[in-house]
């Protein structure tokens, strides 16, 4: 069972539930081979500087974060079977359902605060 946390951005909850993938195996598996990513669910990969969507069947939003939680880049609706860019300074990546980042209003320069 993965650890869980909550995140706040711009005074709003980012997701109802965020699982934390912080071991080699949980990061390696990530969301591969899952059927869907539910609304209000996220996966925080830490440490992580780049992601891919090989083995996935759906698009996701990818939020690249610095060690302090600053949003460095938001990739909206990254399609399956793609390799994301390595983002300089990225130490964590938050994966959300496609459209969630825009709906929440997450943008470059925002700070995400995580609570375990």
Describe, in plain words, how this protein is organized in 3D.
The protein has 116 residues and is mainly beta. It has a single domain (3-115), classed as Protein of unknown function DUF192 (Jelly Rolls, Sandwich). It contains 2 helices and 8 strands. It has helices at residues 24-29, 100-104; strands at residues 3-9, 12-13, 17-21, 41-45, 60-65, 71-78, 92-97, 113-115. Strands 1, 2, 3, 4, 5, 6, 7 and 8 form an 8-stranded mixed beta sheet that branches. Strand 5 (60-65) and strand 6 (71-78) form a beta hairpin. The longest helix is centred in the N-terminal third of the chain and has 6 residues, at 24-29. It is globular. The chain starts with a strand and ends with a strand.
Q: End-to-end span in angstroms? A: 15 Å
Supply the CATH class.
Mainly Beta
Topology as H/E string? Answer: EEEHEEEEHE
The total count of helices amounts to 2
Q: Average pLDDT value? A: 90
CATH-defined topology: Jelly Rolls
Shape: globular
Number of domains: 1
What structural category characterises the helix and strand content?
A: mainly beta
Using only C-alpha atoms, the radius of gyration works out to: 12 Å
Identify low-pLDDT runs: none
**Which architecture name does CATH use?**
Sandwich
How many runs of DSSP E, i.e. beta strands? 8
User: Proportion of β residues?
Assistant: 35-45%
> Main β-sheet, in a few words?
8 strands, mixed
Which homologous superfamily in CATH is the superfamily? Protein of unknown function DUF192
Helix content range of the residues, please?
Answer: under 10%
């Amino acid at each position: 069972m993965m650890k869980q946390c909550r995140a706040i951005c711009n005074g709003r909850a980012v997701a109802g539930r965020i699982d934390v993938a912080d071991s080699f195996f949980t990061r390696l598996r990530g969301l591969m081979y899952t059927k869907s990513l539910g609304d209000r669910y996220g996966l925080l990969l830490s440490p992580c500087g780049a992601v891919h969507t090989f083995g996935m069947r759906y698009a996701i939003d990818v939020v690249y974060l610095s060690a302090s939680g600053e949003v460095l880049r938001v990739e909206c609706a990254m399609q399956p079977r793609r390799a994301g860019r390595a983002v300089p300074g990225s130490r964590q990546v938050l994966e959300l359902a496609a459209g969630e980042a825009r709906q929440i209003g997450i943008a470059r320069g925002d700070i995400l605060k995580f609570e375990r």
